[in-house]
Amino acid sequence: MVLAQPDDHFAVKGTEPVSMAAVGGGPTVLRMALGAQLRRLREAAGVSRETAGEAIRASHSKISRMECGRVSFKERDIRDLLYLYGVTDPMQVESFVTLARRAKERGWWHKYDESLPDWFETYVGLEQAAKIIRCFEAQFVPGLLQTEEYARAVIQSAHSEDGPEKGEDRLAVRMRRQEILTRQAGPANLWAVLDEGAVRRTIGGRAIMRRQIEHLVEMSRRPNVTIQVLPYSVGGHAASGGSFTILRFPESELPDVVYLEQLTSALYLDKRQDIDNYLAVMDRVSVQALDPRRTRDLLNAILQEL
Predict the structure, then answer these.
(1) pLDDT 10s digit of each residue in the chain, 306 long?
(2) What own/partner pairs with CB < 8 Å and gap ≥ 24 does 15-18 have?
């Protein structure tokens, strides 16, 4: 096995290296990348999750969470697992340990810990590192495409029990998340399909909704943003189960993640069969939806009604 310096990439023999620069080096994705490498090392060594768990005084389920990047890594656990997997070269071990330390660093969103649930902080970390984001939204304009006024109205209606400080924190996070679409260094690509109800439901009043629709028209002209509306005339459609988001990362080593937000929690799906099912649904609703030009025509027609 050849292990490069931590600021470059790390690799397992027989696999392509994961570039830390390419995935942005954010803590969430660093955990995913490191976990994937540990899984490949374990499998190459013929070690079961149960045996790996015993080596770090934990259960096999913790090994599974570590390999999926769902939890942070303790330095002692990394060293014990690498020893179990036959990785004993001091430089290689230290490279892994350094990456584990970087994976524990806090992202910009952690300053809002008091106002955001843990399960959503995970999503923000994934979104910040994603290269391609595809989503279907049934009820609201996607957060990445919301104006500040519209976003404030949505947050106030969904979290009316929160005080003004928490509401402003949520708003600040939503607005900063949008920077991934306009950043100079490799903006993310967004492909959003919106149910027609999402652009016709008046949120915050007619003036706010008008500015939101105008913003959608403007954003739809960006080369990295595709917006489609799924019209009422389609009737039943493949995404009748509700809203979802599919995140894809710059490196093929990292699996796609499907994000399903619920009222008080969220699901993160990364099994190949689940991902394939949601990709198929996304493809079908994209075909059923109006193309981007006709979507702009519909949005402009809605503007005339507001």
Answers:
(1) 333 333 333 334 433 334 444 344 477 778 888 888 898 899 999 999 999 999 999 888 889 888 887 788 889 999 999 999 999 898 888 888 888 888 777 788 888 888 888 888 888 988 988 999 999 999 999 999 999 999 999 999 888 777 788 889 999 999 999 999 999 888 999 999 999 999 999 999 999 999 999 999 999 999 999 999 999 999 888 898 899 999 998 877 678 899 999 888 889 888 889 999 999 999 999 999 999 999 999 999 999 998
(2) 15/40, 15/253, 16/252, 16/253, 18/251, 18/253, 18/254
Whether the CB-CB separation of 260 and 266 falls below 8 Å is answered with yes
Tokens of 7: 């600021």
pTM: 0.79
Q: Which residue has the tokens 């595709």?
A: 226
One-letter identity of residue 261: E
- All structural domains of the chain, each given as residue ranges with its CATH number in brackets, are 9-103 (1.10.260.40), 116-305 (3.30.870)
